[in-house]
Known about the structure:
Distance between the termini: 9 Å
Function: Catalyzes the hydrolysis of N-formyl-L-kynurenine to L-kynurenine, the second step in the kynurenine pathway of tryptophan degradation.
Subunit structure: Homodimer.
Number of domains: 1
Family: Belongs to the Cyclase 1 superfamily. KynB family.
Pathway: Amino-acid degradation; L-tryptophan degradation via kynurenine pathway; L-kynurenine from L-tryptophan: step 2/2
Helix content: under 10%
Strand content: 25-35%
Amino acid sequence: MIIDISRLLNSHTPTWPGDTPFSYELTWSQEETGSVNVGQFTTSCHTATHVDAPFHFKSDGMTIEKLPLEVFVGNALVIDVSTKGQITTDDFKGLNLSNIRRVLLKTETWTGNEFPTQIPVIDPELGSFFLKNGIELLGVDLPSVDPLDSKTLDTHHALLKNGVHILEGLRLSDVDPGIYRLTALPLNIEGADGSPVRAILETLD
């Protein structure tokens, strides 16, 4: 079974205050061309479900087209932390992280169609913890892995320092905790600081 964990892109999709909203319109209609409809869209690289490239928060960081694609395809562990105001290494006690390279955090904080005003705090110490446990991707159902008003982006930088890539804006409300196969490939956009993705989970037999 395939579970779509992407947020819908339309004119109502919430985005960071002041950032470029998503829009789609027809450039030419079939009636005009005589054969096809041709559309165009405009959006921020960080609207809805997206991957952050290190260049997003570090000027000499890697851009989106240079990220290793294998990080965004493979088994992922979904963890329910919906009761937590702060997510720390303690929330991973008792979990078997053997052979787990990707972790998705289900916080249930951003379930509606309004941009959240407050989100759980993700401890930057998770960066070194993930490195020790071989985890290379952190996915969240949040617009950011850092507090919404953060300027230092401590968790972004801690994850980068420890080789952990970032997937944000997931939709995990209908996903039970467990192991799935994740596919969440960023677009091949030269020089970009991020990219929207169509993220899916597949149940394992």
